[in-house]
User: Fold these one by one.
Assistant:
Number 1:
Amino acid sequence: MNRHPFAALTAAALVALGAPARADNAGVTAAPVLQVPLGARALGMGGAFCAVATDASALQYNPAGLARLNAHELNFSYIVGAGESTLQNLAYAAPTPLTGISGNGYTTAAASALLSQSGTIEVNTLRADGSLGSSQRLSAGSDMVLTGGYAERVGMTAMETKSGTLNIDHFFGVAGKYLRSTLVESYHATALAADVGYLAHSPEAGWSVGASVLNLGGKLKYLQQADPLPTTVRGGGAWQGGVPSVHNLIAAVDGDYVIDEHLWHANAGVEYFWLKSYGLRIGYRFNYGSQGGLTMGFGYRWKGRVLIDYAYDLGDLLGNAQRVTVAYRFGGVPPSVRGRQRRPFIETSPEHEEMPDLEQRRPATDDIPRPRAVPRERLQGAPGWIY
């Protein structure tokens, strides 16, 4: 019997849907699953999410955006591909009470697990005389990506303008990922990668800008040759306005460049929400070949806790056109706690410290002003509008 591993690998790669590989740059980079746009909200806006990044899917677009979450979020996305291919992604993001490395608060930790299946493939074995020996259907390929990330606010800037003071928050985030890829149930490869991101946001002006570098790291090697991961540089801007209690509008643009493929993309999108509950999205993806074009989607928010999003990519002719994301938010944290900063540490020298005279310095109890009790705000789950 004579099995042909290279032919099987080639065939498996061709049917590995759940990945945005295209004929004009096929084989340049490995792990095309890392280029799949995750999250129905992001895809509905054409993928223009680098400067928006206000939910758990920020872990895949710009990890710095994780710091903008004000509640715990459990997020599940399901992607329907062509044929038998499917992709699922489960993510969790949690604000922490820590002030962070820089001491400026807004710390968040997140993790996600992405699983993809590329359907099945028929593998034939031949006898010595060239006749068919046996035939069996095997899994064409599968990928598992485990990601962990952390973000915090690293600084604040106040800008004086004619209309007043604009406060700008600066966020920074990092993420690490482990990738395991399998072809035709026989060939395995693993790789490690890292992401870094930056995001600046001005609450008064409503604008934000972001930049990230994704998939920095090693290579995937199945047999003899190792292929690089799709290292991508991404950047963009967004603006948000409206009356939060009635309507809210977000407009965003961004672009990315895949270094090893020498390929650029551009994305633009708009999101509109009415009464905090009903949302519509439209976007466009430029220079994606057979997978670019118009995208559309909608969203529904129930009491700010349950989030349901759907998106459809009208230009994706190869599959993976539909996204469904369901998220649950809980344990909301008020901005006063999120923005808590580290108190400065004042070091004193015992030999130079003067001990106070307790008898002379102790004030009379009758002269001490008694502060009035201030009722403490009781947090009621997640804020009603978190964007």
Number 2:
Amino acid sequence: MAKFIVKRLLLAVVILFFVMFIIYTLTYLIPSNYVETTARELAAATAKQGGKTYQQWLEQLNKETGRDKGLVKGYFTWLWNALQGKFGESWRWNLSCTEKFSKVIWNSFALGLIAFIFEIIIAIPLGVVAAKKQYSVTDYTVTCVALIGISLPTFFVATVLKLVFAIKLGWFDIGGMHSRDFISTTATSWEAFWDVAKHFVLPAMTLIFISIGGLMRYTRTNMLEVLNADYIRTARAKGLSERKVIGYHAFRNTLIPIVTLLGGTLPGLFSGALITETLFSIDGIGYVSYYSMTTGDIPFTMFYLTLMSILTLLGNIIADILYAVVDPRVRVN
């Protein structure tokens, strides 16, 4: 197992090297208008303080992104800095990329973790129940809800939730992380926590609704496959109770592919929900990356794409390891 993990890690490093090269190439080929616009804005903003001229800013920004050194040499310069955790300063947020990331990542993590926990609590039991009562009203209802969750786009679900709970009922605000009457200087830490938590309800509901459908269908399909297996018939023939057959024999084997699937989604807790965070104005990594991309913030865009690549590779490794942990029969030679 240790040999397998080391092999996968080395392979992941090689893949990451080429993925980062692709990321750098794509951003390198971006029209220079973005750099020129940023240099012009910085020059105008610092002109009154006797700051740098447009040409000086342009040279500095090209140097920061390696555009003045050519594609290959510029990539290795950027890669060396990235290995040291130096991704440069964000043009949009006027902070280093890593500093801005550290300020917003925990909002995304909290939102993603809440949605992840409720997804498991809701989707897996409903998938098991639907499989136990195949072709019943319960099964059709669960399948219908799952298909709706899979089919509806995020922006539609978010809009409906805003219309019902924010506009019609007035229970929540449409967006943001603080209420309009919230005063940070006078509020206690507990009041500040509940104010933020209240603004996380609708985004979390959106993420839960669009994610439970796939997991419910996946659980139901795997449970049906296990229930039709020979060892389940044998367990029932021995006179075991249905509860023990389902809960001990069937569910344990259904859990193997589910845990593998969930293991691959764990790193996603740190990548943010770009669409949902943007729709609800949640100051998370998804929201920040969206505005960085739309405003031509090349350093932060490269940082975010690199982070996504690392998390994706890490998720695949975790999924492979969890498969062997959950199923003792699996042995990697």
